[in-house]
Structures are given as structure tokens and as C-alpha cells.
Design goal:
Blueprint lengths: L3 E5 L4 H12 L3 E6 L24 E5 L5 H11 L3 E4 L6 H6 L1 H21 L7 E7 L22 H20 L3 E6 L2 E2 L8 H13 L6 E3 L5 E2 L2 E2 H12 L7 E3 L5 E2 H11 L4 E4 L6 E4 L5 E5 L17 H7 L7 H24 L10
The protein binds NADPH dihydro-nicotinamide-adenine-dinucleotide phosphate and guanosine-5'-diphosphate-rhamnose.
């Protein structure tokens, strides 16, 4: 009998890596995807299986975390052994602009899934993974952060995720659901959404290199993050659900770098050496060789409340799950730059052939 998994957020960065990982492990994978006016399955198109063929193991279902009856029906139909709740409005800055929707999807969405498990009598069968986040730590209470560090969320996103963290713990204690939180620190990849800072930087750097873009506008360069690779992190999600007892785990690399350091390293990957000049809003990143300004600050990218430093201690995951990250910070930056450089070269070709190319500053 194949194990059956439901992955919400399957069209996102982590959903794509996790679906592939589970298929390789022999699972039957069901993914929840939202209806959209454009195709939104780019990240998982390579996993597509024709439903008319035999031995299909990958299915997509239309759904939304704000729609209880839809979730109940899908869970009832597929009777999953494991649910990975990765769906979320996952952009911290956007959550300040859409706080109510963020709470609905990121907080109540989790409750809807847990309630579906409970009311359909699946508590003994269905294990539940909640995509919790280092954003829960928010305003720094302790460095490094462990499973025991106090939470202090600093955005509507993080507050919604705080609810999800605790409702998962509560359903574990109240109803014996095998519910677990992976408290994952930032993880990136070439599949990262273009408006998160790492991908925004690697895209811009490669486009600047090829003359497709003049400069990049960023917000807070001082913010420090513990950045790992998404493929390593989805393995941790799976390991968390394979343990004898449900528990919560920090997943992190144990290294932290500033946004400024990320920018410098990404530029150096394409042979450009950046020097910094000026302070705060006036700070600029200048090409040492040509004197051109390549990085400027735009206050619109600052957040009303910021998370200054994240640095995780994944000792518990190391000891109990046998998990450790494989990809280093340098390798991650290099890999993201390489993939974006290939994309930028394609765009350059299109431009030369007369197609329009967009510049992204978001
Ligand atoms: P993405 O933003 O790349 O993906 C989010 C996914 O959720 C997409 O598939 C999106 O669909 C879907 N989604 C959004 N809203 C809804 C909704 N209302 N109903 C159903 N689906 C919805 O995020 P990541 O893959 O980076 O992250 C996965 C999860 O892990 C998220 O919950 C995130 O908050 C959390 N997390 C991420 C970390 C990271 O560093 N990446 C760190 C810690 C936690 P669509 O494609 O249609 O937009
Ligand atoms: P984060 O990721 O908020 O940590 O949330 P993001 O990449 O958006 O920001 C990281 C840091 O960079 C600073 N920053 C900018 N950020 C963006 N997006 N754009 C900019 O131009 C810019 N300039 C500076 C930010 O202020 C911040 O300090 C991610 C998401 O994946 C969450 O879903 C997840 O929970 C956490 O990581 C862990």
C-alpha cells in the first residue's frame, strides 16, 4: 500500500521540492492548487502525470485554505496518511497590507485542516505538518534561537503563524493528533519567489551584469538571516513526520548573514566588486571598477516593524532526526546566481529579437 500525502501550497517553492521528494520516496502525492487566471504550476510542471495513463501518483486538486468544505471534501476523498500544510500568504511585507486575508489563510486555514482531521475521525491515521517559521521569534529575545526561545512576532504574518503553531500543539495535546511544527528558518533556491530578497537580488545582479537592468532598489540592508537551501529543508519536514512521537523542531543552518553581505557575494559571483558608500537611506552600492551606482535604498521596502537577526540552533533536529543542511551559504548564492544568469541570457536574446523584457524592482 502506497502512503498518501496531501501537500497544500504545492505550487510554491517548498511545495515543489516536497512533492518531488515524496514522489521519489514512492508516495502518492495530492497537491492543493488555487484557481488563477494564469497558469500557476510552473514549479511543478515537470512532475505532471497524465491522468489517462496507468500508475499515476501525482494529483492536483483545486482548493483554498479559506474554504472549509472544499478542504473537508478533498481530505475525505483521499484519506491521507500525511498532510503537509505549506500553503500561506507567505510574504511578510505584504501581510502588513493584507492583514485580514493573511490571518484567514495562515491562521484559520490551519485550524480548518486540523478540524477536518478531527471531525472526520482521522486523528489516529493522518499525521499533520505545520509550516512554522523563524518569524515567530521576531524581536530578538535570545541568539541563537532554539525550540525553547520565547516568541515575539513582529508582523501580521508572524502573528497568524503564531496561532497556527499553537493550534497545532493544542490539537496534539487535546485530541492526540500527530501534529508537528517545523520551525524553519529562511530557505531559498532558484525556485524562490521573485519578491523575496535573495531571489530579487540574484535576478537583479544577473540582469545588471547583462545590461538588462540599471540598478536594484532595496530596503533594510542590515537585516540578518539564517539562509539555507529549500531542498534540504523539505527533507526535514518529512523526517519530522517519520518519528515515533510528534514534536516541534528548529531547522536552520546555524550561520547568519546580512542582506548587505548577500548582495556583495551575489555581485562577486558575476565578477563585480561592490563598495558601500553613505549611510542609512543614502547608502549606495557602487561598482568599484566603474564607479556606477548599482544598489540604492528605497524606503518603501522597509517594514513597519522589522526582524533584525535570525540565527537558529538546530541541535535537536541534528540529534533526533539525524538532519543537517548539505548546501552552504556560498553554494546557495552561487547556485541561485547561475540559474538566474541563464534566465537573464534568455531574456537578452528575446530582447535582441525584438521582444519586450520587464524589469522587476519589487
Ligand atoms: P510560497 O509563497 O512560495 O508558496 C506558498 C504556497 O501557498 C503557494 O502554492 C500559494 O499558491 C499557496 N497559497 C497561498 N495562499 C493560499 C490559500 N489561501 N489557499 C491555498 N493555497 C494558498 O512559500 P514557500 O514555499 O517559501 O513556503 C512554504 C510555507 O512555509 C509557507 O507557509 C511559508 O509561510 C512557510 N515558511 C517558509 C519559509 C521560507 O523561508 N521559504 C521559512 C519558514 C516558513 P499560489 O502559487 O497560487 O500563490
Ligand atoms: P522574510 O524574507 O521576511 O525573512 O520572510 P524576505 O526575503 O522578504 O526578507 C528578508 C529580509 O530582507 C530585508 N529586505 C528586503 N526584503 C524584500 N522582500 N525586498 C527588499 O527589497 C528588501 N530589502 C531588504 C527584509 O526587510 C527582511 O529583513 C521569509 C518568508 O519566506 C516567510 O514566509 C518565512 O516565514 C521567513 O522567511 C522565515
Amino acid at each position: 500500500m502506497k502512503k498518501v500525502a496531501l501537500v497544500t501550497g504545492v505550487t510554491g517553492q517548498d511545495g515543489a521540492y516536497l512533492a518531488e521528494f515524496l514522489l521519489n520516496k514512492g508516495y502518492q502525492v495530492h497537491g492543493l492548487k488555487r484557481r488563477s487566471s494564469l497558469f500557476n504550476t510552473d514549479r511543478i510542471d515537470h512532475l505532471y502525470q497524465d491522468l489517462h495513463e496507468e500508475n499515476v501518483n501525482f494529483y492536483l486538486h483545486y482548493g483554498d485554505l479559506t474554504d472549509s468544505t472544499n478542504l473537508i471534501r478533498i481530505i475525505w476523498e483521499i484519506q491521507p496518511h500525511e498532510i503537509y500544510n505549506l500553503a500561506a500568504q507567505s510574504h511578510v511585507k505584504v501581510s502588513f497590507e493584507t492583514p485580514e486575508y493573511t490571518a484567514n489563510a495562515d491562521a484559520l486555514g490551519t485550524l480548518r485542516l486540523l478540524e477536518a482531521i478531527r471531525i472526520m475521525g482521522l486523528t489516529a491515521k493522518t499525521k499533520f505538518y505545520q509550516a512554522s517559521t523563524s518569524e515567530l521569534y521576531g524581536k530578538v529575545q535570545e541568539i541563537p534561537q532554539t525550540e525553547k526561545t520565547q516568541f515575539y512576532p513582529r508582523s501580521p504574518y508572524a502573528v497568524a503563524k503564531l496561532y497556527s503553531y499553537w493550534i497545532t500543539v493544542n490539537y496534539r495535546e487535546a485530541y492526540n493528533i500527530f501534529g508537528c511544527n517545523g520551525i524553519l528558518f529562511n530557505h531559498e533556491s532558484p525556485l524562490r519567489g521573485e519578491t523575496f530578497v535573495t531571489r530579487k537580488i540574484t535576478r537583479a545582479v544577473t540582469r545588471i551584469k547583462l545590461g538588462l537592468q540599471e540598478k536594484i532598489y532595496l530596503g533594510n540592508l542590515d537585516a540578518k538571516r539564517d539562509w539555507g537551501h529549500a531542498a534540504d529543508y523539505v527533507e526535514a519536514m518529512w523526517l519530522i513526520l517519520q518519528q515515533e512521537n510528534p514534536d516541534d523542531y528548529v531547522i536552520a543552518t546555524g550561520e547568519t548573514y546580512s542582506v548587505r553581505e548577500f548582495v556583495k557575494l551575489a555581485f562577486s559571483e558575476v565578477g563585480i566588486e561592490i563598495k558601500w558608500q553613505g549611510e542609512r537611506l543614502e547608502e549606495k552600492g557602487i561598482d568599484r571598477a566603474t564607479g556606477r551606482i548599482l544598489v540604492e535604498i528605497d524606503p518603501k521596502y522597509f517594514r513597519p516593524t522589522e526582524v533584525d537577526v535570525l540565527l537558529g540552533d538546530a541541535a535537536k533536529a541534528r540529534e533526533r532526526l539525524g538532519w543537517k543542511p548539505k548546501v552552504s551559504f556560498r553554494e546557495l548564492v552561487k547556485m541561485m546566481v547561475e540559474v538566474d544568469l541563464a534566465g537573464a541570457k534568455k531574456d537578452l536574446l528575446c530582447q535582441r529579437e525584438g521582444f519586450k523584457v520587464n524589469n522587476y524592482h519589487e
